TrEMBL record:
Coiled coil: none annotated. It holds the Pfam family adh_short. This is Short-chain dehydrogenase. The keyword Nucleotide-binding does not apply. Gene3D superfamilies: NAD(P)-binding Rossmann-like Domain. SUPFAM superfamilies: NAD(P)-binding Rossmann-fold domains. PANTHER family: DEHYDROGENASE/REDUCTASE SDR FAMILY MEMBER 7B, DEHYDROGENASE_REDUCTASE SDR FAMILY MEMBER 7B. InterPro entries: NAD(P)-bd_dom_sf (IPR036291), SDR_fam (IPR002347). It comes from Streptomyces varsoviensis. It comes from the Bacteria. The lineage of its organism: Bacteria, Bacillati, Actinomycetota, Actinomycetes, Kitasatosporales. Belongs to the short-chain dehydrogenases/reductases (SDR) family.
Length: 307
């Protein structure tokens, strides 16, 4: 993702861990380091510019983390992009981009960290961040859902493959999160309306989850070596429903898709949320403003500010 999210590092700092951050954007990485040092001045924090789509870069990241802080003993793979658009507004390129960033990124992170995790005197821990989108196909988020589903399967397979090595692998399935991601998600089709519904759901207090609380749940699950952590009641309900009655769940999802904005019938480049003009119409503008309010506050707290 373009901007680094900080939500998964706070509690590990409180547990006395040195923290290595990685992101593609060097400026945002420096800002993240400064934020963490300000909040936790006694914690060792350092950043490494790294594109997780490049396995050699990930190898260098792990080597650097080992040289600077020892270990690594705990690794969290959380790189991601969000593309919100109906199917007729995207093509194979968007699917490849999602798979390269989220699945290949998680794969490279796992493969390059496992040699260190196997040698950890504490027993290594690896967490791969999937999504509720990895539990069932989500309309207008299909590339994202495909990549997250592959990441979830990877976590399950790695768990079975590494069990004898004292390495635990945790698959994490967040639901909607208030992280400010709506500002840097990429939108296609009727962009204003797509942004309105996505930001409304991602910021709704009864549907989405506070990022700090989610971070605590994730860290707790990783420390306890849980195989799976599913966040938000809605995500748990969706995963359960799909497991028990997959055909019915898919039909209900198809009905929900009819309520989403219609495609424009043309393909244009996706645009980030922070560059999208407000929608026309009072109801659409109110929906966008209501949904974005809590997420806009989260954007500053979790280093997702606009460029």
């Amino acid at each position: 993702m373009r901007h680094l999210s900080l939500i998964h590092v706070y509690k590990r700092q409180a547990r006395g861990c040195a923290v290595t951050l990685a992101a593609r954007d060097g400026d945002e990485l420096k800002n993240a380091e400064a934020m963490l040092r300000h909040r936790h001045p006694r914690t060792a924090v350092h950043g490494v510019v790294c594109d997780v789509r490049d396995q050699e870069a990930v190898r260098a990241l792990m080597r650097r983390a080992h040289e600077v802080a020892g270990g690594p003993d705990i690794v969290v793979a959380n790189a991601g992009i969000i593309q919100v658009a109906p199917l007729d507004s995207i093509g194979a390129e968007e699917f490849r981009s999602a798979m390269d960033t989220m699945f290949a990124g998680a794969l490279h992170t796992a493969l390059e960290s496992l040699p260190y995790l196997r040698r950890s005197p504490y027993g290594g821990r690896l967490a791969l961040i999937s999504s509720v989108g990895g539990l069932l196909g989500v309309p207008h988020l299909l590339p994202y859902a495909c990549a997250k589903a592959a990441t979830g399967v990877l976590a399950e397979g790695l768990l079975t493959e590494t069990a004898a090595d004292r390495v635990s692998v945790t698959g994490v399935y967040p639901g909607l999160m208030r992280t400010g991601s709506h500002l840097h998600a990429q939108f296609g089709g009727d962009r204003s309306k797509e942004f309105a519904w996505f930001s409304a759901l991602a910021g709704a207090p009864l549907i989405s989850m506070n990022a700090q609380r989610a971070a605590e749940r994730i860290v707790s699950g990783v420390v306890r070596r849980r195989a799976r952590v599913v966040l938000t009641p809605a995500a748990r309900a969706a995963g359960l429903a799909h497991g028990i009655a997959p055909a019915t769940t898919v039909r209900l999802s198809a009905l929900a898709a009819r309520l989403l904005p219609k495609g424009t019938g043309t393909r244009e480049p996706l645009r980030e949320g922070n560059s999208i003009a407000p929608p026309e119409g009072f109801a659409a503008r109110r929906l966008r403003a209501w949904g974005s309010a809590m997420n806009d506050r989260a954007a500053h707290a979790y280093n997702q500010r606009t460029a």
